[in-house]
Amino acid sequence: MEQVAAEMGGQPGTEPVPEHIMRGDTAIVLHTQRLSTEDGPGIRTTVFFKGCPLNCLWCHNPESISYRPQMHWMESRCIGCGICLKACPSACLAKTKDGITRDRSRCVSCGICARECPAGAQEMLGTMVGQEELLKELLKDRVYYEKSGGGVTLSGGEPLMQTEFCAGLLHRLKDNGVNTAIDTCGMCSTASLDRVLPLTDLILFDLKEIHPEKHRGYTGHDNRRILENLVYIRDCIRANPIKRLWVRTPLIPGATAEAETVERIGRFIHSTLEGELQRWELCAFNNLCRDKYRRLDMEWEYATTPLMSKAEMAEFEKIAKGSGPDPDKIFVTGAARVENINT
After folding, report:
1. Residue 338 forms part of a structural domain
2. What pLDDT, in 10s, does the model give residues 269-286?
3. Which end of the chain is more exposed for a tag (fewer CB within 10 A), N or C?
4. Domains: count for the chain
5. Is 327 part of any domain?
6. pTM for the complete prediction?
7. Residue 161 Cα distances to 14, 65, 101, 243, angstroms
8. Which string of b and e fits 10-41 if b means at least 16 CB within 10 Å?
9. Which residues of 189-212 are buried (b: 16+ CB within 10 A; e: fewer)?
10. Residue 343 included in any domain
C-alpha cells in the first residue's frame, strides 16, 4: 500500500490509499456539479473526487486534498439548538462565543452530528459511492450533454488517485455514448494514464509552474513526473488525433503570476505541444474559498490576497499570446476584482 501511495506521488507520512479504492469497488466523492460550463465544452456534470497527491499553497478546494471524510460547520445554517453537542460520541464539539468549535484531534468524522443536525449546519465532506449509483445520476443529464456538446468531467482533488473506479465509470459512460473528460494535475503513474486515456475524449491538464524547485515549493513536489506525463499524453493524442488536450495554468499573485513563469510555460507549450494543444487557459486567482479553510480549521496564506484586476489579467493574456503558442488558443478566465471608481 505504501509503495502504491509513493507511486501516486504521496509523501512520506501521508495517508495510504484505502483498499476499497485500490480495488475500484467504490470511490470517495465530494460532490457532483451539474450544469457546469467551466470543465470542458458544452454543458457538463463534473464529479469531484476526494484525495490529491499535491498540496498547492493556493488550493481553492482544500477539502479535496485528504482521502478521509471531513466534518465542517456551516455557521449560517446553525439555529443554536445544541443537538450536535449531545449527539457527538467523541465529545469533540463545543459551543463558544464564536459558535460551534471542533477538536479535530478527537473527531473521527463519523457523521452522527451531521445526521442529527436539523438545520444541516454540520456537514460531511466526502461520501462513498458505487459505480452503478453514480452512473445513474450522471445519465440523468444526458439530454443536456447531447444538445450542448457537453458530457461528464472527472475532477478533484485528483481523480487518478482512484484510477480503477474512474476507468470503470468512464467505460460505462462511453458505452452510453457520453463525452468524457479527465481533469488531472499530472502527478500519477503512466499505468493510470493507460487505464483512462482510451476512454477519455478530453484531457484537462494542470501545468502550474515550469521551474522544478519552485513547483516543489508551491505544491510539495517537483514537476518532473508531471512534465513527463504531459509529453506521454501528447504522444497518445498523436496516435489518436480525435482526443483533445487543454492545459490550465493558475495565475497566483506572488507565485505563478509572473511574466517569466508565463513566458516559460508558453515556450514549453509551443515547442512541445503546439500541434496537439486545443486550448491554454490561464485561470485567475480565486479567493472565494477562504471560508472553507476556516471551517476546516486550516490556515491559508492567501486569505487576505485580493482578486486580480482586469488590467492584470489582460497583461498576462498579452504575455501568454506573445510567448509562442497560437494566440487564438489562449484564454484568461476567472473573476476580476471590482475597482473603486471615484465619481
Report:
1. no
2. 999 998 899 999 999 999
3. C
4. 2
5. yes
6. 0.90
7. 13, 11, 31, 22
8. beeebeebbeebeebebbbbbebeeebeebbb
9. beebbebbbebbbbbbbbbbbbbe
10. no
